[in-house]
Design goal:
Number of strands: 0
Low-confidence stretches: none
Strand content: under 5%
Order of helices and strands: HHHHHHHHHHHHHHHHHHHHHH
Helix content: over 70%
Distance between the termini: 39 Å
Structural class: mainly alpha
Mean pLDDT: 89
Radius of gyration: 21 Å
Largest sheet: none
Length: 448
């Protein structure tokens, strides 16, 4: 096996995750400045609703659209071309968002970046899962999540640095605009990867698929894989909504649903504000956000190492208990007005649980369970479920914190994680080490 090429291609495509993470979280450093600058704008008479839904969530609404419709270019144009388009979207969004002076233009450019985020959660995991051997698929696809976390850490560090450079009112523009640099680098790099061999087979381009597969593993007999690809290609007109795919659809929906009802994106978007509510000063809150990024990175690495050893289901089982304990204590901390470093510590525990479990598993699991010819549709389903909730939940956080309070919000998240534990125990299958073609067949209910 050509380990170096396989690793280089996987890392290059996974860099879309770096931009995903950076783009999603970089707004947290600019959030307070944007709120003060455009605080006179209202939605339905509420400044907090305008700030949450237009300024803060505009990228997430773009992500929802990108996730809903990103399956089309991923199938029609191919995984590679879609990834190139994603890089262009990120670049335009970063530059545009940094130079505008009104909230509607800002929301428009953030929306464009969101399209890239949504589409990347379909194209990038699908591409890596389709070039990776079964025994390494978990950690290679999980590099996408690692890069998301790396991007989150880079955004927190970047925000902290620009906040302390004495840039004044210009700091938020630098925070957001700097993303254009890694976006350009990624766009150039992704042009060098080959097309997905399984996408080529889906399109009947078997000779090209054979060339790519031989580059990955020159010693492997790929005739069986080519034949399996031809068999699957005969089902290209199918839809994921056929009765026999109901169980797979349910699995993809539930893992994405529970991912967001852990509260992870709500926390990442408002980390500095949440820490300030807990009693930390502004600079300490920003610094604690950096620590969140470090903890996230370290435990994502642990998840990446363990995902092909312990398996996807075991990691989800572990993380469910971590969620329940940390979120329950966070809710109690806000209820009892605990002070000091206890609240940041509990959030670090929450981030560690997420990184080892849902963070490492979600994109790997969704990319594995669907047949090749339905993978983009399946990724779109899981991704759009994820991002509809990732847009709706953070958008409501300023309003909910002001009405029912932080303690009640985190208690709701705790209850949802109890339900996730039941999902893992009773429904979730183990997928580690099983070739894609065999795995999808085992999950299809032909008698449905």
């Amino acid at each position: 096996m050509n380990q170096s090429k396989l690793l280089f291609w996987s890392i290059t495509v996974a860099l879309a995750g770096f931009l995903f993470g950076f783009d999603t979280v970089v707004i947290s450093g600019a959030e307070k400045s944007l709120s003060e600058m455009w605080g006179h704008y209202t939605l339905f008479g509420s400044a907090s609703l305008f700030h949450g839904n237009v300024v803060m969530a505009s990228a997430l609404w773009g992500t929802v659209i990108g996730a809903l419709f990103g399956g089309w270019p991923t199938d029609a144009l191919g995984r590679k071309k879609t990834l190139i388009i994603i890089g262009i979207l990120y670049t335009v969004s970063a530059v545009g968002s940094a130079v505008v002076s009104d909230p509607w233009s800002f929301a428009f450019f953030r929306f464009i970046g969101g399209l890239g985020v949504g589409a990347s959660t379909i194209a990038a995991p699908a591409y890596v899962s389709e070039i990776a051997p079964a025994e390494k698929r978990g950690r290679l696809v999980a590099m996408y999540q690692f890069n998301i976390v790396f991007g989150i850490l880079a955004a927190f560090l970047s925000n902290y640095a620009f906040a302390n450079m004495g840039l004044g009112d210009m700091a938020w523009r630098w925070m957001i605009g700097i993303e254009a640099l890694p976006a350009l680098i990624y766009t150039v790099m992704v042009c060098t990867v080959p097309m997905s061999p399984r996408w080529l087979m889906m399109k009947g381009r078997y000779d090209e698929a054979r060339e790519v597969l031989q580059k990955i593993d020159p010693q492997r007999d790929i005739s069986g894989l080519i034949e399996a690809g031809k068999e699957e290609a005969s089902h290209n007109s199918e839809s994921i909504w056929q009765p026999k795919y109901r169980f797979i659809v349910l699995l993809a929906f539930l893992i994405a649903f529970f991912n967001q009802f852990s509260g992870i994106n709500a926390f990442l978007y408002y980390a500095p504000r949440i820490f300030e509510i807990a009693g930390l000063e502004q600079n300490a809150a920003l610094l604690s956000s950096v620590v969140v990024g470090v903890v996230n990175l370290i435990f994502t690495l642990i998840g990446l190492v363990l995902i092909d050893k312990l398996g996807r289901r075991t990691l989800m089982y572990i993380c469910s208990f971590g969620y329940i304990i940390s979120l329950g204590l966070i809710s109690l901390a806000f209820l009892q007005n605990w002070s000091g470093q206890i609240v940041p510590f509990l959030f670090f525990l929450f981030i560690a649980a997420h990184a080892v479990g849902q963070g490492a598993v979600i994109w790997v699991f969704i990319s594995e369970i669907f047949p090749n010819h339905l993978r983009a549709q399946g990724q779109s389903l899981g991704s759009s479920t994820h991002w509809v909730l990732a847009a709706a939940i953070p958008a409501m956080i300023p309003f909910l914190f002001g009405t029912i309070g932080a303690s009640a919000v985190f208690m709701i998240f705790t209850g949802m994680m109890v339900l996730q534990l039941l999902f893992v125990i009773f429904l979730m299958p183990e997928t580690k080490g099983v070739p894609l073609e065999e795995l999808s067949k085992s999950l299809i209910k032909e008698d449905s």
